[in-house]
Write the structure tokens for this entry.
Amino acid sequence: MIESALRNIGRVAIFLLRLLRQTGVVFTEPRAVIHQIYNCGARSLVIIMLCGLFVGMVLGLQGFDLLQRFGSEDALGVAAALGLLKELGPVVTALLFAGRAGTALASEIGLMRATDQLTAMEMMAVDPLRKVIAPRFLGGIVAMPLLVAVFNVIGIFGAQLIGVQLMGVDTGAFWSQMQGAVELGDVNEGIVKSVCFGFACSLVAVYEGYHATPTAAGVGLATTRTVVISSVLTLLIDYILTAAFLGR
Amino acid sequence: MPDEDTPDRSRDAVVQVRGLHYRVDAREIFAGVDLEARRGRITAVMGPSGTGKTTLLRLITGQVAPDQGSVAVFGQEVAGLDTRGLYGLRRRMGMLFQNGALLTDLSVFENVAFPVREHARLPEPVLRQLVLTKLHAVGLRGAADLMPTQLSGGMARRVALARAIVMDPELLIYDEPFVGLDPVSMGVIVRLIRELNDALGITSIVVSHDVRELATISHHSYLLSGGKVVAEGTPAELAASPIAEVRQFMSGEADGPVPFHYPAGDYHAALLGKGQGRRP
């Protein structure tokens, strides 16, 4: 059990090292990477914006209810902004990313494996890690922080929509308290988290797709594993990073 | 029928396999296989399904390494090469996959242009000329702008063939080129393999179990069975072979030395639920 787990970690580590050696593709084929940023990022925008709005609205409602009990509804802006920037934005985006972009990556790569396209590239002396995997991996890493930023903006708008427009929190207090209390460190925490999540989710997706059993069932399994492993990994990394940031 | 020995062709072996042993888990795929493909010849590797014909190609192209024995291509030991050496070797060979293995997100034109774009910096007009020439050679110049999903099986294989020859390889490997083709497409592929060999002098290895098609094009044939070469020679020699196993394969009889049934337990016992019905 432990032995097989260690072996798997070793396999992923070797795969990652081979992949990192191909990251020069950013310079040699920037168009391929940009295309993948579009593929992972722009194509996930609708779901990210929709979910960001709802999460923000729920935050507005719950936050208002909670803060009202202490008579400090004016702090709603701070609560919503910190909650989104530090925690909900990166985590929810990563979970959505795993479900939307991660599965698409894993099944696409898995199908390329199943239809011999990756082997054909190797036979043409073209490394599929450079041509196929590296641009997708890098595209995912770049796309994640961008998506998180969009998610946060829409989320704060949603919280404002409910808190200020519906529940009657003072507009000035909402924004000025937020401006006063949120520090650069809070924003940085969110950025660091989103980059780490992007790294983990993209790595899991391309690894699972690349190593999929070349059958219909194998590709299906790879997609499922991508979602499950990405989600668990995201929450685990989130805890570790949160602890690290608070420990400073 | 191509003659066995043409004096002006050099007799050196492009691919040389000696004492090859290979097993997957407990299953022995090859137990001492010797074969060679000579320069400028079409060498056929035949055998019933499941004898590891495709595995042999994977060994020749360095996708897997043999457990024992040697596989040498262009005089270089394949298993001893690092990635760079292996890729250098592969640039001198082309491979036609059973299903074509075209890159599905690229058009027919871009598929054929793919290896050129990767390995050579050609000006766009020259590249265009080169790709269209190769597509014309397989009769699909008019399909240049189609996507792979719009092609029939036979067309996809011809595009894959154009892609395999676009870098002018010295060695061309065909994995089951006739499987699942209608008679016309089959005839086209047979003609193309022959023409490529005649016109460009490409050394070819064709793995297949279509005895009749192979007989019309191959110079030398090997018959694999049970992990060994059971017979070799010109198509005529194989057809006249006295070995029962060879005759069964060449004439396509259902039962013989190669059993119709996969090894199983007693039939009656299995039907009555007494045994497992599997291997005894």
Remarks:
- The CA atoms of residues 122 and 223 of chain A lie 24 Å apart.
- The mean pLDDT of chain A is 93.
